[in-house]
Specification:
Alpha-Beta Plaits, globular, single chain, 21% strand, alpha/beta, nine-stranded mixed sheet, 29 strands, Rossmann fold
Length: 591
Amino acid sequence: MSTGERLRIAVIDHSRCQPKKCSLECIKFCPGVRMGDETVVMDDARGKPVISELLCTGCGICVKKCPFEALTIVNLPDELDSEKVHQYGENGFRIFRLPYPKEGAVTGLIGENGMGKTTVLKILAGELVPNFGSGEGEKERVLEQFAGTQLYEYFRALYAGELRAVHKPQYVDALPKVVQGEVRELLSGIDERGRMRELVEKLELEHALERELSQLSGGELQRVAIAAALLREGDVYIFDEPSSYLDVAQRLRVGRVIRELAREKRVILVEHDLVVLDYLADYVHVLYGRAGAYGIVSHPRSVRQGINAYLNGYLREENVRIRSEPVRFEVRPPVVAREENLLLSFSRLRKSYDGFELEVEGGEFYRGEVVGVLGPNATGKTTFVKMLAGVIEPDAGEVSTSARVAYKPQYIKPEFQGTVLEAIAKVAPPGDAFFENEIARPLALKPLYDLSVRELSGGELQRVAIALCLAREAEVYLLDEPSAYLDVEQRLRVAKLIRRVMEKREALAIVVDHDILFIDYISDRAMVFAGEPGTRGRATPPLEMRTAMNTFLRNMDITFRRDPETGRPRANKPGSVKDREQKARGEYYYL
């Protein structure tokens, strides 16, 4: 930055801004307004305030005074103004820079929710024409702005119809609302590449072909949506969170299919599971900034360098720090079982219903530990958790504990009629210091307090559900898929939060999840489920991590190694030298 000038941006979150419920503090306390300037005025047409970024001095008084935390004032380097790509209206979110989808490669995007990743994908798909900060987007202006860059030829071909983009959207659960009919009918109707039979087999969709879309589970819908994208003829394929709802084996199976596609096509994707992103991508762009206010697309890095830079929290080329301290994955010593710390034990458990049979070997849990639960979908993990919680009774065996149990289910339904704060008040006293400092702050719940539970997004609802579970006075906390809908940053915060609460309360957490990195980061021990999905499940007792991961990954026929810089688990490419060496040694999880 040569001039020393700063670009000031003022963003108003209209979903939080509620002028009818406040005293217009943003106008009343603004020094500029008091001096007679129109720094903040009311837009009568929208009934919302408007902040003049030209007149704003950046004092931040309005940000502090706003009772709904709806305002953000940020100073950025002045030269970024020339790299602005799109802005959602006056005082709206804006995105700076775009990634370039390279030919014959997978380009990944990583960053917090609210940083503009989906906006970037829509622009690259041609669904949103960038406006570069003002007015309506115009294709001619796009070509002028990117003249002389790689993106010029990309957008020229895209807008001329010479380059076709195929986009798999983020929210696959909305698919049955817009598409009716059987899976076979849907896929055969769009099979432009003549590969339906091959992809149905690779994505294990044979059993779903004769079923209606409305009858499918989340994981089945995700695989159908991925298959539908892969069957279309295109030049660039765009995937928004392809691993959601999938178990580990399914995630890596989808990864292999997408990797095969990238040999001849351009692929760009958003993915929050770092193991899957590492497995899939060749290059990574980090999106950083202020969630809901602005996002900046970093320069491309190799997938290992990009993920490590993200975890380290420092982007060297941009000279930007995005995290106060680096994230490290440590090998924990085996838990030493002490009889006085025994909290919960169970004998061999059996449960049968609707043609499904589950058998779990007996085991014990101890105070202060976090036990991860791993295994494919439909092998009984949620059934086991419900037996521990007392929601369902086992057919044989018993759970021995007098401990109080708090349970966060896998599927969260926003049935509560009221605000988030009213929901919290039912389990935590208003102003409770432990809840506010140890739970609400890490989960960033305060901005959600005045929102209706029924209006929350999937990620917001997940954070509230985790908070309601951990706020209860209990000795056993059962959390079923707490990472679902959360971005990488939120997953790491939730992992730290669960560990901290267990240590402070000397309680036990049992966590079911499909994110290997999340389970590795959070767990002292782990249980492994296997079997024939939907028909039969069997589970080990709690095992020390090395044994558990070796057992699980052997079942999956996948090997992992640890990154020497961050300690994070990385999936080996099938058939690679490392993969063959570890399988020969029987070490599927390198320690």
